[in-house]
Amino acid sequence: DEQQYDYDVLVIGAGPGGYVAAIRAAQLGLRTACAESRETLGGTCLNVGCIPSKALLHASELYEEATGGHLAKFGVNFQGVSLDLDQMHAEKAKAVKELTGGIEFLFKKNKVTWLKGRAAFQDAHRVEVGGQVVTAKDIVIATGSSVTPLPGVAIDQKVVVDSTGALALPKVPEHLVVIGGGVIGLELGSVWRRLGAKVTVVEYLDQILPGFDGEVRKESAKLFKKQGMDLLTGTKVTGVTVEGDRAQVQVEPAAGGEAQVLAADAVLVAIGRKPNIDGLNLEAAGVALTERGQVGIDHDFRTNVPGIWAIGDVAPGLMLAHKAEDEGVAVAENIAGQTGIVNHDVIPSVVYTMPEIAGVGLSEEAAKAKGEVKVGKFPFMANSRAKTNRDTDGFVKIIADANTDRVLGVWIVSSLAGTMIAQAAQAMEFGATSEDIAYTCHAHPTHSEAVKEAAMAVQGKPIHI
Ligand code: FAD
Ligand code: NAI
Questions:
Q1: Burial 396-434 (b: 16+ CB within 10 A, else e)
Q2: Which of 112, 315, 328, 433 yields a CA-CA distance of 20 to 30 A from 383?
Q3: Which residues does the record give as FAD binding sites (predicted)?
Q4: 444 is catalytic
Q5: Ligand closest to the CA atom of residue 16
Q6: Catalytic choice (70, 444, 447, 464)
Q7: Does the CA dihedral 339-344-350-351 come out positive or negative?
Q8: Model-level pTM?
């Protein structure tokens, strides 16, 4: 009966959700194909997202260290530092090529068939991909997301760009106006500020980084301002006009008030992302959407149509690569009759600026809305390694249930926050109390000791503050 289908599993989209689902399905013995319309595998993340943005963040950080005079106090002096932006882009492109090529290798190794072209449903088990029709018993929708357009602001990828354009600017802008004080705006704004641009971030809400812990949002804003970024919060963009290679950005207070005009030579639109469903012809299969236009799923990633599943950015939840990857493993295991589960309460978020900003679990505000909490904080100013490295920006904050002491959320602002948050996620996954963390031996001298000290602070007894 199953042999009547060309494949056991067809995955649509080869981003972190789709390529991982395809590999795990093949590992579980299922005949698997993956449709991808891009020239290379890896989706948004590897091609125009996580990877190229981290390449530029790393390179621009090195440039800022070299030019900012920070190294002289460590006795490292040099002259003649200059920027070769073409080389910076070339090294970024090389990393992207190596990693997307790596996925192609993994597909071959695991015998996943790559169907090149755009996929569109014909019915619940039949999909057209690049002119060819294939059938599959189970189909996973993993088509990802793309930038949310701002009405009245046309993206030309020259003067007005989205994140893809902002990853490829051929020269450093004099004045970059970023619309949206979220993750993309702050990461890519930081890249171009470090390379010499004046950067103004226009954020509609009264604070950057919605969804993050309140204190973390405030501290981050303070640090970005100290670095020279202009943050216009509580401000909306009412229009952008482009003339030649210059733009005029009209802004006014979100609450109403006097308008002003920002002159810029580059404008980045980064106000969020929306699920990719256009052209998929979901109607032909009868797949239902949520109110917000995502593909609706249950706890097991099943849509309303038997045999059709959805994961990653196209489905509800955080739009993060590791969330998509974990859902990719889980959906393949569910299709194979196993029990695939993702704990959506413990998904870390990281902003890869300097310092990095990371969190997992609940913010203090969200935790308080659910019950009584205890909070412990420890500043890197009091951490010996951070002090020694002259790297004292930030803090660790742990939020625990006041009655059970169970850890509900951990927030870290630090140069190493993205790496350190894994320890917090693991502790929470294991149901740790703050006492469990406080009595775990941490190596000295490390930034990680600040996590232990923040846990000790939840108990009211930190040693070093
Ligand atoms: P995607 O990666 O979007 O992949 C979907 C794929 O499906 C695409 O390749 C697309 O071409 C293909 N596709 C769509 N429709 C069809 C069709 N009809 N037929 C065939 N193929 C189709 N997340 C992090 O966790 N960490 C980061 O540091 C990070 N940095 C980011 C930086 C930027 C600038 C951006 C834009 C995003 C970043 N993200 C980051 C988010 C991350 O990229 C996404 O959460 C992740 O890529 C989602 O994976 P996905 O598999 O759901 O979809
Ligand atoms: P975002 O949701 O993080 O931030 C968008 C910001 O724009 C919000 O602060 C919002 O209040 C603001 N905004 C919305 N409309 C506005 C308007 N009209 N004018 C001014 N401000 C407005 O979205 P962003 O930065 O575009 O990123 C998209 C997704 O990509 C995110 O969901 C994020 O998870 C993912 N991503 C993750 C990264 C990471 O994990 N390091 C890096 C980059 C992106």
A1: bbbbbbeeebebbbbbbbbbbbbebbebbbebbeeebbb
A2: 433
A3: 54, 143-145, 313, 319-322
A4: yes
A5: 1
A6: 444
A7: positive
A8: 0.98
